[in-house]
Structures are given as structure tokens and as C-alpha cells.
Amino acid sequence: MADRIRFVLNDEPVELSGVSPMTTLLDWLRDRRGLRGTKEGCAEGDCGACTVVLAELHGGGLRYRAVNACILFVPALDGKALLTVESLSAPGEPLHPVQEAWIEVQVPQCGFCQNGQIMTAKALLDRNPSASEAEIRFQLAGNLKYGGLVEVPFGMTLRELLYDFGGGSASGRPLRAVQVGGPLGSYLPAAQF
Ligand code: FES
Asked: Could you tell me the pTM of the whole model?
């Protein structure tokens, strides 16, 4: 059992104790927190349906990366910030630009896998706002949908979808409280500030 785990979940502080080291993040999100936007597909790290975004301190700022919640154990969250698809747009607020684009051009087919796709795209854009088509394709290769890889209809490239379709801005609502020096900064390792 881990003694204490502190992290930020969608701009809210979380402190846990007595969590089994074998509890996966996917189970914890869905069963304990009721955050069902993170989907379970293969449950073994292959399909990307469970993709969430982790933010970690790196070089004085935050570095974002997409991770598979089904193969990440909850204690690994300590000192990090976690974003699920529920964080992208609050009720009454506009959708995240990636969500808008996905819906508008009907990328998702049945929709089961799209939350994972969107979170992968968000992590990439937060990390590299000028990613190339090749990098976008490489990153999204881990997010499968029915019939194979993510493709955009109407002859668009993925880069056109992410950068051009939404008016050139795809970064969306930033993390508020978790900014370096922000009110939840103490949940990240203080030595790195
Ligand atoms: Fe398929 Fe996690 S559920 S990668």
C-alpha cells in the first residue's frame, strides 16, 4: 500500500492513502471517481481508448504526454497533474478545439475511441504547437479505431484538421491551478520550481 499519493486531477487537488499499488488509473477513474469518459477497450495498452494526459515538471515548465490509463498504476501519479477528457470543456463553455474539429468532420465513427484520440492530440499540441503531419500521425498511431488508424475524411490531413479547421488555435483551455507557481503548485515537486 502506498502511504500517501498527492496529485492534481483536472485542476482539483487529490490526496489518497492506502491505495493498492495494483490499482490501475483506469479502474480508479471510472469506478472510484465516476469519470467514465476514459474508456476501456483492450485493457492492455494497445488500443488507446483509455488515453489521458499527464503533466510533469520539466525544465521549469510543464511537459505533457499521453499515457494509457489501463497500464498505469495510481501511485505513479504522485507529484503530477492528470487531465481526463472531462477537463477539456466545462458545462456551458465551448468545446475544446480538437473536440470541435473531431465532431465537425466526423472522425470518430462510433465514438468509443474518440476521447482517447482527442487526448493524444491535445497532449501533442500542448507539447509541440507546430507538430508536423508525420509527428501527428506517429503520435496518433497508438489510437486505434474500428478498421485501423485514425484518418480524416474529405481528403484532409490530420495537420489540416488540427491547425486549420479550428481557426489556427488548438491548445484550448490551459491548466489553471497547476501552472508553475499556481495555487496547486505544492502538489508538484517543490524542488523543481
Ligand atoms: Fe486499450 Fe488502455 S484500454 S490501451
From this structure: 0.83
